[in-house]
């Protein structure tokens, strides 16, 4: 196991800068997730750590060793890709043992490791099968097993769950978390899926256009996003963004006024007439929930009148997609239980202004 440190890493492809200013240190044994939209540079960072790409500038350390010029196979990292890449002619046991065979590890130790790895991934009963006799989820577990068996210093995972169907993805995600807990290997995981990032990570690195937007633990990033990109990327459904104009201690949202509560006003320092983007998460908007209103002090809720566009029952909760009358601005609301609303209904929303960004 080892810590991983990136210092001002940059990678250019011809004239295109894929990543720059990439600096962070992952302490030994932690699980970090690199997340961001497609093309933001996640894989380039991971491949640079693996030694499959070379940094144009900057320093990369694994443990205490500067590894910029160390070839991939000498870095003692194991990488798992989304397409498994198993050897089709070998059994599960042979696939798991492959890296150890190449290193001429003692046969007895190989046997032992294969059995242990198979046990921790629930693959014991499949050891004699060939990959094509396995489900996608089982194949991915074998790919993980092959990586674990080598007992690498660092584990690199590039979208390892994206080829699995929804249920299997959830199960395998939970297994991965358990496995990390068990093994404690420093892990760097790349995904575009914010749910995976939120659920798996000790720390999340949010990337956009090749640059780090924010680094933090999931709860902190969710509660205190550094900018609008982070705010709207993490959270499902995403944070609502309402264009508004600041006027006399209120925000004018397309002609509707949200008065700023006294406790929030202290932190608002804006010139009159300033255009702003207000952010509010769907779970901080209420409808028809009088008990919620009582929980809030005078002036902490603001009213917005909207038209119902779509109602989506999600079981325990209902997602209501609404729009501000006479504008294209959409407001998503997530409420508990069932609601009797129809397309085109006019609705009064109560916004919890303590949770306004
Ligand atoms: P992500 O993994 O977040 O989808 P990538 O790291 O794959 O993003 O890519 C980041 C940027 O670098 C993209 O604009 C991509 O087109 C570019 N890029 C990646 N690899 C190469 C390459 N081998 N040659 C040219 N451009 C590349």
Automatic annotation (TrEMBL):
Gene3D superfamilies hit by this protein: 2.40.50.100, Nucleic acid-binding proteins, P-loop containing nucleotide triphosphate hydrolases
Coiled coil, from the record: none
Top-level taxonomic group: Bacteria
UniProt keyword Nucleotide-binding present: yes
GO biological process: carbohydrate transport
SMART domains from the UniProt entry: AAA
Stated name of the protein: ABC transporter ATP-binding protein
This protein's UniProt keywords: ATP-binding, Cell membrane, Membrane, Nucleotide-binding, Translocase, Transport
Species of the source: Amazonocrinis nigriterrae CENA67
CDD domains xref list: ABC_MalK_N (cd03301)
SUPFAM superfamilies for this protein: MOP-like, P-loop containing nucleoside triphosphate hydrolases
One Pfam family of this chain: ABC_tran
One Gene Ontology molecular-function label: ATP binding
Domain ABC transporter intervals: 4-234
GO CC annotation: ATP-binding cassette (ABC) transporter complex, substrate-binding subunit-containing
Record's keyword annotation contains Cell inner membrane: no
InterPro entries for the chain: AAA+_ATPase (IPR003593), ABC_transporter-like_ATP-bd (IPR003439), ABC_transporter-like_CS (IPR017871), ABC_transpr_MalK-like (IPR015855), ABC_transpr_MalK/UgpC-like (IPR047641), Mo/tungstate-bd_C_term_dom (IPR008995), NA-bd_OB-fold (IPR012340), OB_MalK-like (IPR040582)
């Amino acid at each position: 196991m080892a810590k991983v440190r990136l210092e001002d890493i940059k990678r250019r492809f011809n004239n295109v800068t894929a990543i720059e200013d990439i600096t962070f240190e992952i302490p030994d044994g932690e699980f970090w997730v690199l997340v961001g939209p497609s093309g933001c540079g996640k894989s380039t960072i991971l491949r640079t750590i693996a030694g499959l790409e070379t940094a144009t500038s900057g320093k990369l350390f694994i443990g205490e060793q500067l590894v910029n010029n160390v070839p991939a196979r000498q870095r003692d990292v194991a990488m798992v890709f989304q397409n498994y890449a198993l050897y089709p002619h070998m059994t599960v046991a042979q696939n798991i043992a492959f890296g150890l065979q190449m290193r001429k590890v003692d046969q007895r130790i190989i046997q032992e490791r294969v059995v242990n790895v198979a046990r921790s991934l629930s693959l014991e009963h499949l050891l004699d099968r060939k990959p094509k006799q396995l489900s996608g989820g089982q194949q991915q577990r074998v790919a993980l097993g092959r990586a674990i068996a080598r007992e690498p210093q660092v584990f690199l995972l590039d979208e390892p769950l994206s080829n699995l169907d929804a249920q299997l993805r959830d199960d395998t995600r939970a297994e991965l978390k358990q496995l990390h807990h068990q093994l404690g290997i420093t892990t760097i995981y790349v995904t575009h899926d914010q749910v995976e990032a939120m659920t798996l990570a000790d720390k999340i690195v949010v990337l956009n256009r090749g640059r780090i937007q924010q680094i933090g633990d999931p709860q902190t990033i969710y509660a205190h996003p550094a900018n609008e990109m982070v705010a709207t990327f993490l959270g499902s459904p995403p944070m609502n963004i309402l264009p508004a104009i600041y006027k006399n201690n209120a925000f004018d949202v397309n002609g509707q006024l949200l008065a700023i509560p006294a406790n929030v006003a202290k932190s608002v320092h804006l010139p009159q007439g300033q255009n702003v983007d207000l952010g509010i998460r769907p779970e901080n908007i209420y409808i028809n929930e009088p008990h919620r209103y009582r929980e809030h002090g005078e002036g902490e809720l603001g009213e917005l009148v909207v038209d119902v566009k779509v109602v989506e029952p999600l079981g325990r909760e209902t997602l209501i997609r609404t729009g501000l009358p006479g504008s294209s601005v959409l407001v998503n609301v997530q409420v508990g239980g069932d609601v009797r609303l129809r397309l085109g209904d006019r609705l009064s929303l109560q916004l919890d202004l303590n949770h306004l960004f």
